[in-house]
Design goal:
The complex is a heterodimer of chains A (876) and B (190). Helix content of chain A is 75%, strand content 0%. In chain A, strand 1 and strand 2 form a beta hairpin. Chain A is mainly α and 876 residues long. Chain B is an all-alpha fold and 190 residues long. In chain B, helix 2 packs across helix 6, helix 5 crosses helix 7 and helix 7 packs across helix 10. Chain B is globular, with a radius of gyration of 19 Å. The chains are: A mainly alpha (876), B mainly alpha (190). Chains A and B meet through helix 11, helix 13, helix 14, helix 15 and helix 16 of A and helix 1, helix 4, helix 6, helix 7 and helix 8 of B. Chain A: Its main location: membrane. Chain A: It is found in: Membrane.
Chain lengths: 876, 190
């Protein structure tokens, strides 16, 4: 029984037809209410009134109809037996709540499932929406006849809703109430009703509560309170809330996404700085040796000299076990170093993977179906923009874009000749060759320069100004290449004359990435293969210094770029060449610069543990400088920037070449390379990883730590484990892939079905209109009195030809609200023979049903035929 | 800058937190901004008075927004249709436009905002209004009628799944669900 009830619930058609019947059945019963209850009275007020009456006059109880079970109890008296007493229904009515678990449904169908709930919710919202709308636009034709059924509908929905809310847990309930598209007043009413229900319920069951559950409850409450206050505290910590708002208000979401990304990287660096500082640097302070190098000031730029003997670099760290007191707890520097860095990278990896997958899931749900014309318009307005000038500019840009897009659509038919196509391909190929060639040349230059630099350094072995200045050549050249080759690339992009401006953006970004990654890659090769093999005293420190200089020079170039690229450019654009105009903020280039800087920092962490601290400072300065420069010099980008997708793309870039590359560099350093003999925490070992093996060896002697040894031997050192792990992963990936393929086909089928149903509907509507016309002409003499009444409102409120229009619209909404609006014009429905009322004594009802069925079948056939035609059209 | 403006009672604050997507700070800020719109003598009972539309629209967050009138219309619960806003309406609005509101509820209200004639569907007229709001009313940026016709045709072709000439709520939400930028751009922060 209960199962059937739920099915009815799930199946909208069944549900609708049922409600129609109920509404009609009740209309005749409660005519006098309809006069007493003006439609406008708030639903709740009239509801109470009903319930009050229900108490006094049991026979009139409208409540019976509000409870979904009542129709069952009327038709099938056995249901009542299911509940505790035959009169239970009547008494329970006071609590307008179906109590789903008790008699009518398995709780599982109600409780955790979100979908049916949300559907019901949207149904309810639709009702109220229409209500509100009707109140506003004063569609009063329907009010007198349909108000009653509609308010009943509302109560029913509401009772259902409250029933569901009561059965939820407190958290879910709050979430569900928040999600309702209702006014605050309505939400509060619902919440209060739900609360009343809960107290009533718990009141009756209080005896069952023992001390333990109360204690648990209290703990849960205090935990929730604690969490709330914690989140408030974190909310206050939100950096630059106001600045971000101003930027968003003036430049829109696209530019804002750059700053959000910058902020995100900054938090990454703060986190890693804190970790490194507290677990590596502070213990080293305890065991620090005196630094006898002098500080001149130039070191700040070169990172050499004085800094060599500080905690900034790998070489300074001790390999000893630090212990303050004899026999006290000791601190193994080797392990601390390797574990801190290792755990930091594991955390980075996971947080990146998580944010990447989250943003993929949200932003690339259905990439192939994204064609964007409609969504471009419907969701294009950026409500963040609050600046009046920015709004005007945005409107103008949108207008030109729309015009361009329309123009493009018209131009698309224009076909290129073979010769033009060949020319295009040749141009593309040539520019690819040119761009890759530049990247290769740049890499070769960097490589030879760095090798040369190292030789110079090894030969002279002195720390004077000259050699320090020579050290700066490499980073400056690298930064110059990074700064100027992109201009060449964007010039190439202009030369290529892409059809689609988006392609141009993507191609330019790809080329820039190739350039940056190959420069970093060649530097890594130089560090790992040449510096590490050289006979320098402490090659790790050398690498650390190199990275320090690269980071610093990159930062300086970023500031210079702000000055020349934006400030000077604006001056030129506004005074000398006015046609150039104010520069736009180039989001892609700026984000790529950030990714480059972050990659350097990650590589550098192992060789210079405090590098994140430096990067932290430079990023916060960059934030302010960019902000000021943006506000002063730039104008919002003209093109709509697909912020969400681009952010996903950038996070992916940060993950794929950047973090993965860094992890492999670090892995090679730890597993393969021989650490230098005289400095650093790993001096004297064959590889850095040997520190861990040694540690495991010593652990074997301690009883109680066998599990660590076991894990190490059986998991980390066994090929079998990794073999099984990767096989499992492959299998799971394959499974998911297959599931995705299945879903894709499903989506296609469903889409087709929707289209078919739409065609059904159109067909039925046309039939309906025709029949309506025919019936009106036919039955004009027979039902004159009825005609008059209906005609009176047709003519008073709406021109007759609007009627079909209206019907059409109500059909569209798949919610019951629209369906019960039909009850206002019974004769129209009768006219076409819809099964309006199965119980009526009219002879036409039988034929009506079959007629409608026939109509539906025909409509389906028609639609299928059309569909086939469509398919034929597609086939050549 | 009288610091003596009435405080929001604790239980009301809790209630608002429970009923909206806003955090405590956001509610307090909203309250502050709302009472700033009120004349001095009404500051005491900020939770019960209604602010007329003209005054609500002086908020910098709404002042330049081309959909300002629709926003007021949709969120106002005023009985006499003057689009005045009470504090609760104001909170409702901020809740929908807040960061943590779900994209479902955002798209629901976006639909209502774009539904200029309040008839429950986006028809050609509504779309035309929408495009005019997006491009602005000035002479050079307005689309001419042929462009408008074609544009609306394009939109309908793409998003009107059941081919009835209008976009209904579920079709609208379908379109929105394919455009991930929507949730981040349908946002007003105080």
């Amino acid at each position: 029984m209960s199962y059937h009830y739920n099915e009815a619930f799930e199946n909208p058609d069944y549900h609708f037809s049922e409600t129609l019947e109920i509404d009609r059945g009740r209309n005749s019963q409660k005519n006098r209410f309809s006069h007493q209850n003006p439609y406008d009275s708030s639903p709740n007020g009239s509801y109470r009134e009903h319930s009050g009456r229900g108490q006094n006059y049991p026979p009139d109880i409208p409540m019976a109809s509000m409870r979904h079970d009542s129709e069952y109890s009327q038709s099938l008296p056995r249901v009542a037996v299911l509940s505790r007493s035959p009169y239970g229904n009547c008494q329970d009515n006071l609590s307008f709540e179906p109590e789903p678990e008790l008699a009518y449904s398995p709780p599982s169908t109600f409780h955790p499932l979100d979908r049916p709930y949300t559907r019901r919710l949207s149904g309810a919202s639709e009702v109220s929406f229409i209500q509100r709308r009707n109140r506003r636009s004063a569609d009063e034709i329907f009010v007198p006849s349909c108000s009653l059924s509609k308010t009943d509908q509302v109560y029913k929905e509401e009772a259902k809703l409250i029933g569901n809310l009561v059965s939820m847990s407190a958290r879910e309930r709050i979430k569900a109430i928040q999600k309702m598209p209702e006014t605050m007043k309505k939400k509060r009413e619902i919440r209060n009703k739900v609360r009343k229900e809960i107290t009533k319920k718990s009141g009756s069951r209080r005896s069952q509560f023992d001390c333990c559950t109360q204690c648990l409850h209290r703990m849960a409450v205090s935990y929730r309170r604690f969490r709330n206050s914690l989140s408030e505290y974190f909310h206050q910590l939100q950096l630059w809330h106001k600045t971000l708002k101003i930027i968003g208000g003036k430049f829109g979401t696209g530019v804002l996404s750059y700053f959000v990304f910058l902020k995100w990287l900054l938090t990454f660096n703060i986190f890693s700085f804190l970790i490194n500082f507290s677990f590596i640097a502070i213990p080293q302070f305890v065991a620090a040796e005196p630094n006898n190098l002098s500080f001149t000031g130039l070191e700040l730029i070169t990172g050499a000299g004085y800094f060599q003997e500080t905690i900034l670099y790998y070489g300074f760290y001790t390999n000893a076990t630090i212990s303050k007191t004899e026999n006290g707890a000791s601190y193994n520097m080797q392990l601390a170093y390797i574990f801190t860095v290792g755990i930091y990278f594991v955390i980075c990896l996971f947080s990146l993977v998580f944010s990447m997958t989250k943003s993929f899931r949200r932003n690339f749900i259905n990439p192939q179906a994204y064609s964007g014309n409609a969504s471009k318009l419907l969701c294009t307005w950026d409500f963040n923009i609050t600046n009046e000038k920015a709004v005007k500019l945005k409107q103008k840009n949108l207008s030109t874009q729309i015009k361009e897009a329309l123009f493009e659509v018209n131009q698309e038919v224009l076909n290129f000749s073979l010769k033009e196509r060949v020319v295009h391909i040749v141009i593309h190929l040539a520019s690819w060759v040119a761009s890759l060639g530049t990247a290769v040349v740049a890499c070769a230059g960097v490589y030879f320069l760095s090798v040369n630099n190292l030789e110079l350094f090894m030969k002279e072995r002195k720390n004077d100004l000259e050699s320090q200045a020579a050290m700066l050549v490499l980073p400056i050249v690298a930064s110059l290449l990074n700064a100027f080759i992109p201009f060449f690339y964007s010039w190439l992009g202009l030369l290529e004359k892409f059809q689609n401006p988006r392609h141009q953006i993507y191609v330019t970004i790809t080329r820039n990435i190739i350039l940056k990654i190959s420069i970093v890659g060649i530097l890594c090769y130089y560090w790992l293969n040449i510096v590490a093999a050289s006979e320098s005293q402490c090659w790790e420190t050398l690498v650390g210094q190199d990275i320090y200089r690269l980071v610093l020079v990159d930062f300086i170039f970023c500031l210079l770029g702000c000055f020349f690229g934006e400030f000077v450019r604006r001056i030129i654009g506004t005074t000398v060449y006015v046609s150039l105009g104010v520069p736009e903020f180039d989001i892609a280039r700026n984000v790529l610069d950030l990714i480059y800087a972050q990659t350097l920092t990650w590589i550098g962490i192992f060789f210079s543990p405090l590098l994140p601290g430096i990067q932290m400072i430079s990023f916060s300065i960059v934030f302010y400088v960019k902000k000021v420069s943006l506000m002063m010099n730039c104008q919002p980008p003209r093109k709509v920037w697909r912020a969400a997708q681009m952010t996903t793309f950038f996070i992916f870039l940060l993950f794929f070449p950047s973090l993965v590359g860094v992890l492999s560099v670090i892995a090679v350093t730890v597993w393969r390379l021989k650490p230098s003999k005289e400095c650093g925490p790993f001096r004297g070992l064959s590889s850095m990883y040997a520190a861990i093996s040694e540690w495991i060896e010593t652990l074997k002697n301690y009883p109680g730590s066998e599990w660590v040894v076991w894990i190490y031997q059986n998991l980390f050192q066994s090929e079998l484990f990794f073999f099984i792990l990767s096989t499992l992963l492959l299998i799971i990936t394959y499974l998911y892939w297959q599931i995705i393929e299945g879903r894709k086909t499903m989506v296609k089928l469903l889409r087709k079905q929707i289209i078919n149903e739409g065609k059904d509907k159109m067909f039925l509507l046309e039939k309906l209109r025709a029949l309506q016309m025919a019936k009106q002409n036919l039955s004009a003499p027979r039902r004159q009195d009825q005609k008059r009444s209906s005609a009176s409102y047709h003519s008073s409120m709406q021109p007759a030809q609007h009627m079909p229009n209206y019907l059409e619209r109500t059909f569209d909404r798949n919610q019951n609200a629209s369906y019960d609006e039909f009850s206002y014009s019974p004769e129209i429905l009768e006219g076409i023979g819809l099964p309006l009322d199965a119980e009526t004594s009219r002879p036409s009802s039988r034929t009506g049903v079959s007629e409608a069925l026939a109509l539906a079948l025909r409509a389906r056939r028609e639609a299928e035929r059309e569909d086939e035609d469509d398919d034929k059209d597609f086939r050549p | 800058m009288g610091g003596s403006a009435s405080r929001l009672p604790r239980e009301a604050l809790g209630e608002y937190q429970e009923l909206t997507f806003l955090t405590k700070q956001e509610i307090l800020l909203a309250y502050k901004r709302f009472s700033e719109l009120l004349p001095e003598e009404e500051k005491e009972n900020a939770r019960s008075v209604r602010i007329p539309k003209s005054r609500i629209l002086t908020l910098p967050e709404l002042r330049a927004n081309p959909f300002q009138h629709r926003i007021c219309r949709v969120f106002s619960t005023s009985e006499d249709g003057d689009d005045s806003m009470s504090f609760e309406d104001f909170l409702d609005m901020l809740s929908v436009f807040s960061d943590s509101a779900t994209s479902e509820i955002k798209s629901h209200y976006a639909f209502r905002i774009f539904d200029f004639d309040d008839d429950g569907t986006l028809d050609k007229k509504d779309l035309e209004n929408l495009v005019n709001c997006l491009t602005g009313q000035s002479e050079e940026s307005r689309l001419n009628s042929a462009e408008m016709e074609q544009l609306i045709q394009n939109i309908l072709e793409e998003s009107d799944i059941d081919k009835d000439g209008t976009i209904n709520l579920s079709e609208f939400q379908h379109v929105i669900s394919r455009s991930p930028d929507f949730a981040s751009s349908f946002k007003i922060v105080l």
